[in-house]
Amino acid sequence: MLALVWHQRGNVQVENIANPPRPGPTELQLRVLACGICGTDVEEVIHGPIFISGGSRSLYGIPPPIILGHEVIGIVVAVGADLDPRMLGKRVAVDGLVSCGACRYCLKHRMNLCERLGSVGLSLHGGMAEFMNAPGFSCVEIGSATPDKVAVLAEPLAVGVRALRRARFQQGDRVAVIGGGAVGLLVAQAANSKGAGEVIIVEPNEWRRIVAHAIGVARCVTPSNSIGIDADIVIECSGTEQGVKAALAASAKGARIVFVGLAKSNLPIEPLQLVSSEFELIGSLSHIYDQDFVEAVSLLNQGNIKADAMVTETTDLNTVAEYLLNENRRRENIVKLVWRMSFAQ
């Protein structure tokens, strides 16, 4: 089968390799229909290994070379001995996170904080291939009415769903989303579908603001115009110092500010500002399969998420490799690049 394989930093190659073995007792084997490219994949190619096994974190999984891709949908073509055989032929989205099940965090059902946390496409072979094996518990059936280019957004949408959960979102809340990339646009759509009073995107790039309007966000502003938004909830998705500053400027007193983007700079906030405004600063990491991921799939099945303006499709793995390796390609007007098997719908 063809697969996109990460060997080391700056070295990803399209290769013809053996199909995966028969799935283990608790695994499903999928014929991959589509797989999205994530910013994490880009980071692994440019700066890795980070989350890939052998990097700076000790993660559950196998050493590289490893097949990339953790935003996956596919058709079940083989079922492990311990799983329901009726899963055969089902179309599923893959949550992707793999946890040990035994550490203090897993026992609290916070497996996204697992001490040995791993993920398909980073510590286990992923979905940038014609076939893959995935943990059965992480595969959620997705409705046939949901097109592939929408269904493949289940994993990044789950990130947004968790951020809103961490923010203790309530109907009527005013929500500011900092950053108009894929996760930011999905957070905005999730908030709208859950009954936000108003959703505002804060994004410096004009083209991304146009995309935000196209998917139903009525108010889009630049970071310099974020002062006075007075949001009850702010979701910071940009991972930039400018974005963090905009998040603080957009917050009402008592706001809950959730950090999703991986900002590496110091937070530009003083304790006086934090105390006098009673801001809550909250981190949100990935998602939990039976909470956030299931809800994300439900939102997709309800038809609440618009993908046409967000998703750029390709059927060529070499195009994906070029995108990961070529900074000029990544600067093109692409919010979410998705590899789609040519036989997919």
- Which strand-content bin applies to the residues? 25-35%
What is the radius of gyration? Answer: 20 Å
Query: Would you tell me the structural class of the helices and strands?
Result: alpha/beta
The proportion of residues forming helix, as a percent range, comes to 25-40%
Number-wise, the strands total 18
Give an account of the 3D structure:
There is one protein chain. With 345 residues, this protein is α/β, with parallel strands linked by helices. 27% of the residues lie in helices and 26% in strands. The chain has eleven helices and 18 strands. The strands form four sheets. Strands 3, 5, 6, 9, 10, 17 and 18 form a seven-stranded mixed β-sheet that branches. The longest helix has 13 residues, at 154-166. The mean pLDDT is 93.
Concise description?
This protein has 345 residues and is of the alpha/beta class. The protein is built from 11 helices and 18 strands.
SSE topology:
Elements: E1 2-8, E2 11-16, E3 27-36, H1 39-47, E4 66-67, E5 71-79, E6 91-94, E7 97-98, H2 104-107, E8 118-119, E9 131-135, E10 139-141, H3 148-151, H4 154-166, E11 174-178, H5 182-193, E12 198-202, H6 206-214, E13 219-221, E14 231-236, H7 241-250, E15 251-259, H8 271-277, E16 280-283, H9 289-301, E17 311-314, H10 317-325, H11 327-330, E18 336-340
Parallel strand pairs: 11-12, 11-14, 12-13, 14-15, 15-16, 17-18
Antiparallel strand pairs: 1-2, 1-4, 3-5, 3-9, 3-18, 5-6, 6-10, 7-8
Helix pairs in contact: 4-5, 4-9
List the defining traits of the structure above:
27% helix, seven-stranded mixed beta sheet, 26% strand, six-stranded parallel beta sheet, alpha/beta, 345 residues
